[in-house]
Specification:
The complex is a heterodimer of chains A (326) and B (847). With 326 residues, chain A is an alpha+beta fold. Helices cover 43% and strands 17% of the residues of chain A. The chains are: A alpha+beta (326), B mainly alpha (847). Chains A and B meet through helix 1, helix 2, helix 3 and helix 4 of A and helix 3, helix 9, helix 10, helix 11 and helix 12 of B.
Chain lengths: 326, 847
């Protein structure tokens, strides 16, 4: 019974890992931290499979093995060796290995040259606040861009309930707890795009609270910073007027305009992001239109009021304006 | 093989006519519409298991709905709002309304039979707990159909569950559901501890206790320590929701992590609370199927105790991702791994026992489920070691890896043993066994289905899928794995369905089945009727039926202890805790409506409070209290019918007070529970100070002047002394002392005054609960003492009434003695509280 099962376990594991490595996989390992954990994971999966196979083998032998095996197995010493001595040794080794891994991340913590980014968990999106070298800050949302090779210290807080910040490709998760600040240190090995998601259930649309992290070469990152901290591009004046007339600015900021709301995400450069609505939608004009029409269906319970009173033309106008906020 | 060589029959020779008929009459299960009044453990045990199983099926159906939703990406079969309720109710029901109650139900059902006791020591208490659980649990479960169910996840982390983020009554229904399991768990713990320690058959010293008895003893001990933490947490949460006392809101100096500490200090041991009895069951079934004594009995007992002990050092491993300092994480990581060792001991003991089989190890439905458990639980234990590794856990935490891990541990550790035990113990209460053929179908469908459903989830989690998400996009590599899991879930459901069909076709409650179908060695397979065994056997070994082969016949012909009903009512033998020497015969209550009424109105009271219908709730509470008093009125029966002869030269009293009395033991258990609750409170107080010292007063003048706590302490101490003196003042029945009721009244006034001074002191110093966590926690000390004071006042009224009706004198004073134990405990707690609440802020503020 048991031996074929554990074989199947292993086959499934190998197949699935080779077959479907996604952008949110803990097996992608694009940072030293996450890579070390992958190695640990494999050690434990293989070790665990062997132990499981041995236990199953012992059970099979105890039931229908040769008499000599049964004689060996029924001795109380089997309990002492198998149930006490073996686990004590294995667990002690594993524990020390775990401590070594934990300490390995300390060098990032003490890196004084780290880029500081503050991320605030909100129901159900991510407020992201960058601090430039000059000390000025600017806000963006639902997306992080980080420079390759440089330590990033992400200060995690929450505006409402507990969230958890998790980008499996870079590091394990760390909770965002009201009243506390937790700092996560990551460092990208090479450029690339990874997906992250809120890992602590935070009510309502918890399932739709994701984000992207893009690692850029240092120079591209600096260009991005320059662009991102600047005010919004002027475009589609009619759409802009509508945006203000409808009252969007009560909740959203578009820097360089009169829209200075702080309740919802900053939209200054929303069109240049990888997704909309905390990765609930792709980012294009059609997506803006869908969002404006039926955002309560796409992301139920989100805090944005309905805009049913807008005509199709008005929605298209707004979407075009938003789609132009590169 | 004839045994009377090593023991003499307590009652040799034929028994007089009519004894069995009298036992049958006394222990008769009430019929028809009076069936709910029944208290016999086999009757209410069946109700208990049946209700738990119904919740298992219900919560399982919710899981199927969730699995159907998750079968495809971007599915919209179930709305976000409903899905969030589904997983909350699924988790809560499985943990609180199925797993823990099912294990207690097995204790209620099996322990008296394994110990050849006629019933549990407090039959109506169990019945009360069960009815409260059935009514309250059903209401909780039904909320999911009314869009009223909680949606905070089964561990209900604040601030999400505070009124600001969870308006409406949904979260309160969670607190309601938990309230009932708290009541029934504590009641169950009292029953089980007193039952195991004091109602064992003569000769069954602790080293001959069946492993299941050990497991249940440790189970109950863990409940005593663990449940108070969650009771306190739920009190905090409800008070914060209702009155805004900021225990968890950082704005008022509270801390959301306080909930997590309290919840997991309960929640992690709870997993072992569920697992230990199940492991105990396996330790009973394996030797029977091997027809050989358990190898390593002592090691298993040590392993069970060690598991209970370690399990309290693990709670922080649910909080590795909260940003707690690395050093304390290291401790909890080590403890989390250490707990694997006792499980290893048990698994290898079972393997050794199987290898030691006399003849071939019997493969039948119970043993298949045990083997299935060995595979599933071992795998779950290994993934448990994985998640104890902090770097790995930070990736796996709150993902489907954890969903997989905990289902492996709990379905493997508890559900499979439970099904094994269904098949194994059904012959004890039913006319025939369940079907071997259908049972095998059940097993294979469940076993294969389980692994198909949950094995892929390990991967789904590592590929980044968090738990508790109602939908997911395509393209993350999760689609196929989720579809496989859903297929597996339907296979499990098919297996459970086959089992239900088997129950419908073959399960008929009643006597007349094979007495010992599996050839087991333990007492529950002695010939039984409603009164349990005809006479209570004298035990000389662990596997009694194997070593005393004539026992069944001797017991059935009344040749052992207490073959009759000398007091004319329900009774069983109370023995000493270690050696099991007969001490006295306890007279037990029979069927009644009062405890049912108390349960129903307790449930109604909580329910009405939940939907904020306060007046009616208070009325229901009043009815519940009166019902309780009616119920206990005739359980203190007095010494008149004794002493009685139970055979073997033992002439025993039928009434007991002092440290030998079973009621005294129950009081001690209750005091330990209250003490654990208070320790959890002290932890919360000090913990909150470490997190937000800024809301603690830094000058003594912000606290009450020391006059008030001094007055309060004086009143409490004098009150306790007066109660003590009231007991001393009791005279013989013929000459009742008029002083007693006066003293009781004075004592009641004094302790009420003590509480009043304490609260007034805080109030006059300007402390208000909603202001800060300091104010709230300061008042909580008075609240926790106040609860006990209220209980004492009710008990005082009751004891006074007994005085006036001539049921209280210097021999028959168990009710006053128990009241006094509570008074002493309350006084000690109140004094500690006063010292902490008035001393600690002065101590830290001065520096």
């Amino acid at each position: 019974m048991s031996a074929p099962v554990s074989k199947a376990v292993f086959a499934v594991a190998v197949f699935a890992l080779v077959g479907c490595e996604g952008p949110q996989s803990a097996f992608s390992g694009t940072a030293p931290e996450s890579s070390r954990v992958i190695f640990l994971t494999w050690v434990m999966i293989i070790g665990g499979t062997i132990i499981l196979a041995v236990v199953c083998g012992a059970i099979a032998a105890a039931i229908s093995g040769p008499a000599s095996w049964k004689r060996a197995l029924r001795n109380e010493r089997v309990i002492l060796y198998g149930g006490i001595a073996f686990p004590v040794i294995v667990l002690t080794l594993l524990l020390f290995y775990g401590f070594v891994l934990l300490r390995a991340g300390d060098s990032l913590v003490s890196d004084e040259n780290a880029l500081r980014v503050a991320v605030v968990g909100e129901q159900w999106w991510w407020r992201v606040i960058y601090e430039t070298r000059g000390g000025e800050t600017f806000e963006t949302a639902n997306e992080l861009r980080i420079p390759v090779g440089r330590t990033v210290a992400i200060e995690l807080t929450s505006a409402d309930v507990i969230h958890s910040f998790w980008v499996p490709a870079y590091a394990g998760k760390l909770d965002m707890i009201p009243g506390r600040t937790n700092t996560l240190h990551i460092k990208a090995k090479h450029p690339g795009l990874a997906r992250g998601q809120c890992a602590e259930y935070c009510g309502g649309a918890h399932a739709l609270m994701s984000f992207f992290v893009e690692a850029l070469p240092e120079d591209e990152f600096e260009q991005w910073i320059e662009k991102e901290k600047s005010p919004a591009l002027r475009n589609n004046e009619a759409g802009a007027r509508l945006f203000h007339a409808v009252g969007c600015g009560g909740c959203h900021t578009v820097r360089g305009t009169s829209a200075k709301g702080v309740i919802g995400p900053d939209l200054t450069h929303v069109a240049s992001r990888h997704s909309l609505a905390a990765a609930a939608l792709d980012n294009d004009e059609a997506a803006f239109q869908r969002w404006l029409r039926m955002h309560q269906k796409i992301k139920p319970d989100n805090r944005m009021p309905g805009f049913d009173f807008l005509s199709d033309e008005e929605i298209a106008e707004l979407a075009s304006y938003l789609g132009g906020l590169e | 093989m004839s045994c009377p060589a090593d023991y003499e029959l307590p009652n040799p020779g034929p028994r007089p006519e009519g004894e069995r008929e009298e036992l049958l009459r006394i222990w008769k299960t009430p019929g028809g519409w009076r069936l709910p009044t029944a208290v016999n453990n086999t009757v209410i045990g069946l109700l208990y298991i049946g209700a738990a199983f119904a919740f298992f099926v219900g919560a399982g159906i919710l899981a199927l709905v969730m699995r159907t939703q998750l079968a495809l990406p971007d599915n919209d079969l179930v709305s976000q709002n409903l899905y969030n309720q589904l997983f909350t109710v699924h988790g809560t029901t499985m943990m609180f309304l199925f797993a823990v109650p099912a294990m207690e139900a097995l204790g209620v059902m099996l322990l008296p039979q394994m110990l050849a006791a006629r019933d549990l020591p407090f039959p109506r208490l169990s019945a009360f707990a069960i009815w409260a659980y059935v009514v309250g649990g059903s209401v909780f479960f039904l909320t999911v159909f009314l869009d009223l169910a909680p949606k905070g996840g089964w561990f209900m982390y604040p601030p999400l569950t505070l009124t600001q983020f969870s308006p409406g009554d949904n979260a309160d229904f969670w607190l309601l559901g938990i309230g009932f399991i708290e009541i029934s768990a504590i009641a169950g713990a009292i029953e089980i501890i007193v039952g195991v320690l004091r109602t064992r058959p003569p000769g069954m010293s602790l080293d001959k206790l069946p492993i299941f008895g050990w497991a249940m003893l440790i189970f109950a001990g863990m409940i005593m320590v663990a449940f108070p933490a969650v009771i306190l947490a739920t009190m905090f949460l409800e008070i914060e929701r209702a009155f805004g006392w900021p225990f968890f809101s950082p704005e008022g100096g509270g801390d959301p992590l306080l909930w997590q500490h309290l919840f997991w200090f309960f929640g992690h041991p709870e997993v072992y609370i569920i697992f230990l009895p199940a492991a105990g069951l396996v330790s009973m079934i394996v030797p029977t199927m091997a027809r050989t004594p358990l190898v390593g009995y002592r090691l298993i007992v040590v392993a069970l105790i060690a598991t209970g002990f370690f399990s309290f050092g693990l709670w922080v491993h649910h909080m590795f991702a909260t940003g707690i300092p690395a050093m304390s994480l290291a401790f909890f990581s080590a403890a989390s791994m250490a707990v694997a060792i006792p499980s290893g001991i048990q698994i290898f003991s079972w393997i050794a026992t199987i290898a030691d089989s006399k003849g071939k190890y019997q493969i039948n439905v119970p043993s298949l489920f045990v083997l299935g458990m060995l595979f599933i639980f071992t795998l779950g234990g290994l993934t448990g070691v994985m998640v104890a590794m902090i770097p790995f856990d930070l990736q796996a935490h709150d993902t489907y890896f954890i969903v997989a891990h905990m289902h492996y541990v709990m379905i493997g550790g508890m559900v499979f043993p439970l099904f094994a035990c269904f098949y194994y113990w059904v012959p004890m209460v039913a006319k025939k066994r369940l079907s071997e053929r259908l049972g095998r179908w059940t097993f294979w469908l469940m076993f294969i289905g389980f692994n198909v459903a949950f094995l892929p989830m390990h991967l789904t989690g590592l590929l980044g899928m968090p738990r508790r998400i109602w939908t997911y996009p395509s393209g993350l590599g999760w689609d196929g794995l989720n579809m496989i899991s859903t297929i597996g879930a339907y296979m499990i459901a098919a297996g459970v369905l086959v089992f239900i069909i088997d129950l419908i076709r073959n399960f008929r409650v009643g006597e007349g089945g094979e007495p010992n179908p599996w050839g087991a060695g333990t007492l529950e397979f002695l010939p039984q009727d409603v009164y349990s065994t005809r006479s209570i056997p004298h035990i000389t070994s662990r596997d009694t039926l194997w070593d005393q082969p004539n026992l069944a016949e001797e017991v059935e012909s009344g040749q052992h202890y207490l073959p009759n009903a000398p007091t004319g009512g329900r009774e069983t033998i109370v023995t000493s805790a270690i050696e099991a020497k007969p001490q006295y015969v306890v007279q037990m209550p029979g069927p009644g409506w009062a405890h049912v009424c108390a349960a129903v109105f307790t449930a109604a009271c909580f329910l009405l409070l939940t939907i904020k219908v306060v007046t009616l709730a208070v009325i229901c509470a009043g009815i519940a209290v009166v019902s309780c008093l009616v119920w206990v009125w005739d359980i203190d029966k007095g010494p008149d019918k004794g002493p009685v002869d139970i055979g073997g030269g033992h002439r025993l009293p039928v009434y007991m007070t002092g440290p030998s009395a079973h009621g005294w033991w129950a009081m001690i258990v209750l005091m330990i529970v209250a003490g654990s609750l208070y320790l959890a409170y002290l932890f919360s107080y000090l913990y909150t100070w470490t997190v937000t010292p800024e809301v603690w007063p830094d000058a003594a003048d912000e606290l009450a002047s020391l006059r008030w706590p001094a007055l309060s302490a004086l009143s409490f101490v004098c009150g306790a002394a007066v109660y003590w003196f009231a007991q001393k003042s009791l005279g013989p029945r013929s000459a009742r002392h008029a002083l007693t009721p006066g003293l009781l009244l004075l004592g009641a006034l004094l302790i009420s005054a003590g509480l009043g001074f304490e609260i007034y002191g805080h109030w006059s110093a300007g402390l208000r609960g909603p202001q800060s966590s300091f104010d709230a926690l300061t008042y909580m000390a008075s609240f926790l003492t106040g609860e006990i004071v209220v209980a004492i006042l009710i008990m005082t009224v009751y004891v006074t009434a007994r005085h006036f009706t001539g049921k209280l004198d210097n021999v028959r004073f168990a009710s006053l003695e128990n009241t006094n134990l509570l008074v002493y405990y309350m006084t000690a707690q109140a004094l500690i509280g006063l010292v902490v609440v008035h001393g600690f802020p002065r101590l830290v503020g001065a520096s």
